[in-house]
Amino acid sequence: MVALAMGAVGAAAELQSNDVIEVRARRPMMPGRSDSVAAAFERDPRVALNRQGGTDVQADISIRGSSFSEAGLILEGVALRHPQTEHFHAELPLPASLFNEPSVLTGVAQVEQATVHPAGGVSFSSRDPQRGGYIDLGVGEEGSAWQGVLLEGMLPGSDANGAIGLGVFGHHAEAFGVDYGDNDLERVGGGATVKTRHGAWASDWMVGVSRKEFGARGYYGVSPTWAATETFEDSLVLGTIRQGDVDGVYRRVTGMWRSTRDEYLLFIDPADPFRNKHRTRTSGLAVDGREQLGEAWQLQWRGAYAFEGVDSKSLGDHDRERGTLLALPAWQGQRLKVTAGVMGEVFSDGDEAVLPQAGVEWRVGEAQALFASYTEAMHEPSYTELNYESPGSLGNAGLRKGRSRKSELGWRLQPTQGRTASVSVFHRATGHAVDWVKVAEDTARWAATDLGTVTTWGVECSGSRRLGEQLRVRAAYTWLEKDHEWDVYAARYVLDYPQHRLSIDLDWAFAPDWRLSVGQTVRYHSETMARETEATGRDGRLALQWYAGQPDGVVIRVGVDNLWNDSFGSYVDLPAPDRRVWGALSWRFH
């Protein structure tokens, strides 16, 4: 019996106690096209991935009805931010196969494990070094194609007591007419890793670069009358050193440097297009850990520094800094755990905030728990929200920092016997929430607007169940209601949200060498005037996988994206890409 984590698309098999199935460890399920981090978590029912184009063209993370600026990625305990636009929160120039299966963090769980995004984050941690890799070749309708490679090995002398692993990776993809006829995509990237393990010590060093160019007609609320293109270049260096296990007592240091270049061309006049060109620089250092203080007390602590800079002719040249300190003691009894502490943040413009954090968990029997939490977080507007001016959008230099206050009450079934389940009632009050809105149908441009306080009430039910040894089902349902004082024709991110969202994901090993993956999401959006005739979406996907057997490790996959050819778009006035069939030949080796 081995444990096979199914959530990471294209990832190697990872151990997870509640997903047990009798197969060979070389048999991961790879239901999608890509080994990108966005593809790794888009099957998680708790995450909504709002797309412009396909998953790897431009996609935004939404957790519990949040806007794209309130949720994002967390990498080795550091929340990644993008001060220029935040539209690239779901991007990493690293493949998902380098990491363990991602987890969705909200409430006190996020505060304990990372610097925070206001609504929640998708957390990635580096997996242990190993030997092997993959070669992946795929083709799809309309001439799309992709290639990916990952090669990993360990230096001589590596064993269970100490290991040094080296890896290199690369990828290329192209697609044509993703949604509109001239919205094409070309994406290329690569990088290297060094991972060490020695006793209780571990270190991970990664460097990745990527470049993609895509057609952006109709994106970001701009009229599809005009053609547009965008080029996005991303470079990331990450290093982390850890002593101990982050699920127990540990100490960790994580450093990160990232640079992106973004050029957007809008062809109102083909001879003289409207042009935006930006360079964004972010870097940070976080030191955190958990200490055991006697038999019943623990202390979670963290110190973090973040730098963000933008160089742009249209947005201006800006730098800002942020410092974070956290002290979060917890008392653990036989059945009761109480956590209460404070997070302090200081900003380079002189602002500061003291943010209380608290949680309680009471175990009911051996397998169930009741929990409650209260957390707060700060958010700085992006420089696009502050300073952008284009034919389709207008920023607002008067925007202030947002402050979110979140409460949650719920029940969970502890992972056991292949089952997980939870029910949560949550409330989020976001002060100085920012959205791009049009107050009337004939309004010329989307305007970045301070909505005041937006209050979100919601219920989230999620769970997974292993039915026998070959079938696993995951599902989640979310109901949301937002209170605000605005009556607008259309909104882009905060006020345009799914009131009801049901997502089901099925993975079935129906024969010794065959696996089937099926996903279905149904969502009903809030009814703004712009959504009156387009409020319901049905996003279906299917993939079939055959383990060829000879040569060992060869896998053949076929799949369908947008199974029902549904035109519903995550954003107003932007259609979803048409249904497309694809196939891939992969070789996984050890």
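^ that was protein a. below is b, sequence first then the tokens
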Amino acid sequence: MKQFFKFTFASMLGFIIGSIVLVFLFAGIIGGIAAGFSNEPTEITVDDNSVLHLRINYEIPDRTNKGGLDFASFGMDNTPKAVGLNDILSNIKKAAKDDKIKGILLELDLTSNSYANLEEIRKELIEFKKSKKFIVAYAEMMDEHGYYLASTADKIYINPSGELLLNGMSSQVIYLKGAFDKLGLEPQLIRHGKYKSAGEPLISEHMSNENRKQIESYMGSLYHHFVANIAKDRKKTEAEVENIINKLSIREPMDAVKLGMIDSVKYEDQLFDELKTKLGLKADDKLSLVGLGKYKNTKNDISTAEEKIAVIYCEGDIVSGKSSDGSMGSETICEAIKKVRTDKKYKALVLRINSPGGSALASDVIWREIVLTKKEKPVVVSMGNVAASGGYFIAAPADVIVAQPNTITGSIGVFGLLINAQKLIKEKLGINVETVKFGEFADLGSPDRPLNNSEKEIIQHAIDKIYNDFVARVAEGRKMTAAQVDSIAQGRVWSGKEAKEIGLVDEFGGLETAIKIAAKRAKIEDYRIVNLPEQKDAFQEILTNLKDNASVYFMKKELGENYIWLKQIQGAAKMQGIQARMDYNLKVD
């Protein structure tokens, strides 16, 4: 009986303690929700003689998520909510005209932001300098990504014990065949396009010559564009910059000073002292730094024009159904396009595409809506970091395609993927599957056996048809022959610079360039921008995405940089069926 009361009391105590913890956790979550629940941010004022503090220590999304779930609000993370590229650009532009803002402090960190996004920020910073206001860049540790922005600054400083890592660019492809072999899984890949490499890591342990050729080509394009801009900013020759990189000449901060790649080494307090001097302040005066997260809530000149240009953000993998975090659903995107097409106040449509592609079917559904809209009003595409495969498929019908020289695009090709798990099911798990069927192909795609030759021919025929349709639609949109498109297609990936040379892209520039082109084609001067699809408010976001966001958050926390391996395997598992997709996880370091 004593044991009974002992365990009963322990269980009750555990229940009480657990309940108290849950109450505090729930209260924290509700408090976090309440802190950011209002859709109308509180407007703030900026002191005279202020500096805009632009801190880039996170991966920049194309668009600020107004109502997204923010774990920092719950006290679970110190990382600030990510300000999107759209707000970064608009607020640098606003700061150039703001008499209270005297300059910009760029505080940089080790981040793997895409060079196309960095290109847009670079150009806006260069435009900002025309206001005769200063830009100072500072970092404790910085690599090529951060330096690409820092090079635009009047002065670049690094902590005396910090690091500037300029060692070039690299990209790794993770080959999963060995892992699948150990699991008893056989990916059955059927494709069209000799350069179509998206499925290659699933069936091979090594990079093909074709894949290596295309990676060397587009990465070489990105690298030489990077070197050329750095050389121009730091008043050096391209050969001098390449020599510094190839010899890894910068091994400590003072090396960078001697080579003229930065201006000096400083501690943060010394940096602040210099900023005070620039502002004409005394040593004991307070330095007013305004973070971008707050500055975007200052009063803005918002147009009240009736005529509108829609910017539809097409970001992530292309899937059927509704959009979710990391993917754009054909249903969500098509609803937004239809809204623009049927509302006469919308005079033009700009599609901001940042996608490696995905479902061929979903891509085709979106393509159709774009074609219908193009008959009614101008359609312009702004390519972000990646607009490839299915991402290019939906861009092809646009009147004008705008990209950065370091955008990744093309990959006009198709593949199909089925998984044969016979070895896993039978040999490793000891499960026997018996099939009864009426119809020769009733069990086509069953995971308990490999495809036979007849089934492979059927799938190959379907893939060839989709590829030919892809080529035909690109040819129609780009006013080229099918033969011309086929010669530059075959699944090959191109940089934006290369794509412009072969006719897949019309103009260099960012989102603002695309909007100006759309306005000109619509013959309007007074207009306002409306961003679509409409974002969910905080409460809706929590209800729909709490589980998914929480699992991703904690998985990233636990795995750190190794999260990429899990993401790669998860991505491969989702690629069942016919896909218009480039390499699942392209990343240039």
